[in-house]
């Protein structure tokens, strides 16, 4: 976190950590885990993508070992999620929205770290996609759900398109915050549209 | 293993490696895996937690690549477990006891490594918990069981309490061996009491 | 890839990447994943073993982050696999053959990297086995299949025997290409013979 942009990048990371913690906590409560199980799943979902990113790049100790604030943020988010659990209607939609937001934020987080490590643009898009998707995969595998990534709607494809938009806007030399939040919005909106209109990629069989 | 205390720390690591190898071998035999499958599961269970710990911290090559004795210990343990398999009564209880022992030993192993790398105390407790729990999670996922960590009784919570006891006793400047074995005993006893009296954490739903 | 032999070693890596990409793509099409899902599984199967090897050793960023050609090779292989999918008869056998070839290639890839990092010979065999087996485990776990490694026929054992043959031939100072391709052939042939004659290791229960 010291090597690259602290302001916008950090805000994106915090928002992504928060979003995935909420989605993990909600998914765990749907499966009726106990209080601690909810916090573990929130933690695993939230740090999963960034942990894989840091390990693949070799930037260790991984981010949440270096900065205890992430764990604290996830703990507080998990407790708040449990408190407000019964007051939220349309849980499925809430879970879906926070999963999609986290996907967008973490795609950008992965991309910016790849660029900070001077990896080639195509590889950065791949790294952003892996960073975005992995937290949700961990959550679904631990809860014994079929990973969202393999269900019908476009998922990883949203990360790839968002990543390409990021690279394009960055090339146009726009303001950093605009570039990053636009890329997040692209990932988020593609997910919303894909699920709403049940868009899916063709199959071969 | 050269960077921090060799004596007590190494004894704890060897005992944890042995305990988890036994628990992995027994769980694999319950699932009727072949001879080699039993050895693989014993290996994965035994090195899983420490491998994740080394990867997260960035202390690579990981411990079992640097020191072949761990693989040898697991091999011998696995073979002995297969030889004595039919002579042991109450297999479920034996498996549970060795899993709980391994949990205690590896929580301490993770903690002492975190402290050796100058991580903050709260993060060290998290690292100890991850180190303690991960081997059992790998074992259960590979064998297609529901991870013990998500069943009703207190599991990761035992690691956290044991980790806090470790930090407290260490702060009191007691003898190293007393501090470490007390922490192991705390994790072990919490597991025993939790399962015996079916203690569990509350759920939110 | 710069630290050790570029010629034979690189050819082996490319062939292994190709073989596992084919096996991953075919397994994904059998499960009726969409176009993108097929490419993801091909990617995960293909880079899985080498990624774990690089992470365990600490040679990061991992190989496919440093060299975009691997991702390109997997992309093209995946697309070709989808195009020729319907024209191939005996899909199960084709999948099995490419899985066995990939197993052989990656066992050698893991071994040569372990030797390049001066690990002890026994540890190199273990690293080769892990590198060879992990891609297939990832593929099977993501597709919710029982990992091939735990089914009846000899699997990881083939890697270990191939690894020992590699070390033996290398000790005899034969030509590098002969040593490596012989080891690949040994792994491949043990798999073929084991499945054809349904050889399996004994069980303890």
UniProtKB/TrEMBL annotation, chains A, B, C:
<feature type="transmembrane region" description="Helical">
    <location>
        <begin position="68"/>
        <end position="86"/>
    </location>
</feature>
<feature type="transmembrane region" description="Helical">
    <location>
        <begin position="35"/>
        <end position="56"/>
    </location>
</feature>
<feature type="transmembrane region" description="Helical">
    <location>
        <begin position="93"/>
        <end position="113"/>
    </location>
</feature>
<keyword id="KW-1133">Transmembrane helix</keyword>
<keyword id="KW-0472">Membrane</keyword>
<feature type="transmembrane region" description="Helical">
    <location>
        <begin position="178"/>
        <end position="199"/>
    </location>
</feature>
<feature type="transmembrane region" description="Helical">
    <location>
        <begin position="154"/>
        <end position="172"/>
    </location>
</feature>
<feature type="domain" description="Glycine transporter">
    <location>
        <begin position="11"/>
        <end position="85"/>
    </location>
</feature>
<feature type="transmembrane region" description="Helical">
    <location>
        <begin position="119"/>
        <end position="142"/>
    </location>
</feature>
<dbReference type="GO" id="GO:0005886">
    <property type="term" value="C:plasma membrane"/>
</dbReference>
<dbReference type="Pfam" id="PF03458">
    <property type="entry name" value="Gly_transporter"/>
</dbReference>
<keyword id="KW-0812">Transmembrane</keyword>
<feature type="domain" description="Glycine transporter">
    <location>
        <begin position="97"/>
        <end position="170"/>
    </location>
</feature>
<keyword id="KW-1003">Cell membrane</keyword>
<protein>
    <recommendedName>
        <fullName>Glycine transporter domain-containing protein</fullName>
    </recommendedName>
</protein>
<dbReference type="InterPro" id="IPR005115">
    <property type="entry name" value="Gly_transporter"/>
</dbReference>
<feature type="transmembrane region" description="Helical">
    <location>
        <begin position="6"/>
        <end position="28"/>
    </location>
</feature>
<comment type="similarity">
    <text>Belongs to the UPF0126 family.</text>
</comment>
């Amino acid at each position: 976190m010291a090597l690259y942009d602290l302001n916008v990048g950090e805000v994106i990371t915090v928002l992504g950590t928060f979003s995935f913690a909420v989605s993990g906590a909600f998914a765990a409560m749907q499966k009726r885990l106990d209080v601690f199980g909810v916090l573990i799943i929130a933690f695993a979902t939230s740090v999963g993508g960034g942990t894989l990113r840091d390990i693949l790049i070799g930037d260790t100790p991984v981010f949440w070992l270096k900065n205890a604030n992430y764990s604290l943020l996830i703990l507080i988010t998990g407790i708040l999620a449990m408190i407000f659990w019964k007051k939220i209607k349309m849980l499925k939609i809430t879970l879906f929205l926070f999963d999609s937001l986290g996907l967008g934020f973490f795609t950008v987080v992965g991309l910016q770290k790849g660029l900070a490590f001077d990896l080639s643009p195509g590889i950065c898009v791949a790294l952003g996609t892996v960073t975005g998707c992995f937290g949700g995969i961990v959550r679904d595998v631990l809860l014994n759900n079929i990973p969202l990534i393999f269900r019908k709607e476009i998922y990883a494809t949203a990360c790839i398109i968002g990543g390409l938009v990021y690279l394009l806007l960055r090339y146009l030399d726009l303001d950093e915050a605009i570039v990053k939040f636009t890329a997040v919005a692209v990932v988020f909106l593609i997910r919303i549209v894909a699920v709403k209109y049940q868009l899916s990629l063709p199959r071969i069989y």
